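[Discussion] Sanity-checking designs against the backbone

I'm trying to build intuition for which residues belong where. Below is a structure token string of 258 positions. I'd appreciate it if someone posts a full sequence so I can compare it with mine line by line.
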């Protein structure tokens, strides 16, 4: 079973890229971020024609998350991260797919830091931590997947010294990510590639893709009930080089059967 995450950076503007990758990679489950499309503008027909059912949480021009499942419809279990009823941003959706609970998230960027956007990011992280703990308590297969907007370690960024004051790399953010992970979640990519420099994002500016000046922002965290099934993990980096590509590449894991 292959599960992937892909920040598409505008689903309608990059629909051809998404469909091309789906046809090539044939993932069983896909979490998408940054749809940048209102709820009624999600390209449901095109996705279904490609062989995928979908649930999505749209927002005009910004944010937006979706879960796709090949050959079936995800069963939505939650829309929005609990803990703040006043937060109207579309950054979290949860669904059951083929015996696994999938939480798809798009964590706030937080820049400039310090400032209100950074405080919002830290508060969102706190809410995620509480929800992640509740998910673990169910003792069922769970995956928290998406664009965390966190560079966990120096190995995950091309020049760490240039990112020290950035909201993606500040100590508070890295510590928040580590606290969640260390309570029982497995960082799938790092578990199988502990010493390898791996990137999932390359900015559009300063020829970042050409220089391989990347960051690892997209993560798949697995509950103990799922981590034992992890077989392989990787990044479809070539997709970043396609015409009209997102600035992120798809990240995937392969799981064994129960």
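Best answer:
Here's mine. Compare freely.
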């Amino acid at each position: 079973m292959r599960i992937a995450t892909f920040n598409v950076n505008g689903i309608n503007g990059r629909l051809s890229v998404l469909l091309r990758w789906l046809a090539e990679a044939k993932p069983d489950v896909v979490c998408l971020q940054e749809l940048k499309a209102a709820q009624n503008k999600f390209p449901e027909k095109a996705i279904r024609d490609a062989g995928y059912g979908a649930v999505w949480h749209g927002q005009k021009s910004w944010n937006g998350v979706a879960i796709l499942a090949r050959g079936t419809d995800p069963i939505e279990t939650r829309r929005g991260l609990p803990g703040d009823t006043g937060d109207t941003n579309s950054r979290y959706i949860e669904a059951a797919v083929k015996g696994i609970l999938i939480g798809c998230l798009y964590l706030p960027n937080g820049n400039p830091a310090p400032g209100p956007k950074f405080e919002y990011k830290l508060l969102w992280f706190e809410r995620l931590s509480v929800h992640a703990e509740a998910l673990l308590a169910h003792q069922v297969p769970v995956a928290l997947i998406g664009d965390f907007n966190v560079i966990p370690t120096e190995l995950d960024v091309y020049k760490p010294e240039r990112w020290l004051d950035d909201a993606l790399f500040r100590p508070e953010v890295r510590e928040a990510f580590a606290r969640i992970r260390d309570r029982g979640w497995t960082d799938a990519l790092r578990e199988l590639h502990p010493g390898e420099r791996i990137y999932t994002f390359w900015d559009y500016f300063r020829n970042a893709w050409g220089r391989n000046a990347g960051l690892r922002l997209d993560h798949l965290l697995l509950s103990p009930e799922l981590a034992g099934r992890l077989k392989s993990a990787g990044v479809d980096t070539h997709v970043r080089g396609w015409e009209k590509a997102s600035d992120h590449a798809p990240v995937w894991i392969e799981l064994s059967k129960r």
